[in-house]
């Protein structure tokens, strides 16, 4: 089986529930994965919107997710920090998940959840690393990728 990422909250290619958007509770959806590549020691996850008017907009990056894991619970970065996960600074300037919030009147935007399986236990990034810096560092250790796409419009 190929490395796969999915969410109990929405099927691939379908609408992200408002609970997981800026219009709702703005909490990350639950994510699960299976069949990670052999040798996976950690994961990094990036969420972006390639349909944004000014180019790709970064909504979330979380990294140093332990290689034994096969899921991230709903709202994993909401509230007090309870895990030692790394968080990239998104394009809102926040080190946490910020859900879909496309401009009103736009057709549905596509939100890419990209999970990267890595060959290292941790990425050596500082506390102010941006989503792009997380992606760049993760790409040096990439064993495989799995993608889930959700859509959303106001």
TrEMBL record:
The question of whether Cell inner membrane is a record keyword is answered with no
Q: Which organism is it from?
A: Azospirillum argentinense
Sorted alphabetically, which SUPFAM superfamilies does this protein's record hold? Answer: PEBP-like
State the name under which the record lists this protein.
YbhB/YbcL family Raf kinase inhibitor-like protein
Asked whether the keyword DNA damage is assigned, the reply is: no
InterPro entries attached here?
PEBP, PEBP-like_sf, YbhB_YbcL/LppC-like
List the keywords (alphabetical): Protein kinase inhibitor
- Which GO MF terms does the UniProt record name? protein kinase inhibitor activity
Cite the Gene3D superfamilies for this sequence: PEBP-like
Location of the region described as Disordered in the Swiss-Prot/TrEMBL record? 12-34
């Amino acid at each position: 089986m190929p490395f796969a990422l999915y969410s109990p909250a929405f099927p691939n290619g379908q609408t992200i529930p408002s609970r997981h958007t800026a219009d709702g509770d703005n909490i990350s959806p639950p994510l699960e994965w299976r069949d990670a590549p052999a040798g996976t020691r950690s994961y990094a996850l990036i969420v972006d919107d390639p349909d944004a008017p000014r180019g790709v907009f970064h909504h979330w990056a979380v990294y140093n997710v332990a290689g034994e894991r096969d899921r991230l619970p709903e709202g994993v970065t909401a509230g007090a920090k309870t895990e030692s996960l790394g968080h990239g600074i998104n394009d809102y300037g926040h080190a946490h998940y910020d859900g879909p919030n496309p401009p009103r009147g736009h057709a549905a935007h596509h939100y890419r959840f990209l999970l990267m399986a890595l060959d290292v236990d941790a990425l050596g990034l500082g506390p102010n690393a941006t989503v792009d810096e997380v992606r760049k560092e993760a790409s040096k250790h990439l064993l495989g990728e799995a993608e889930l796409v959700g859509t959303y419009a106001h």
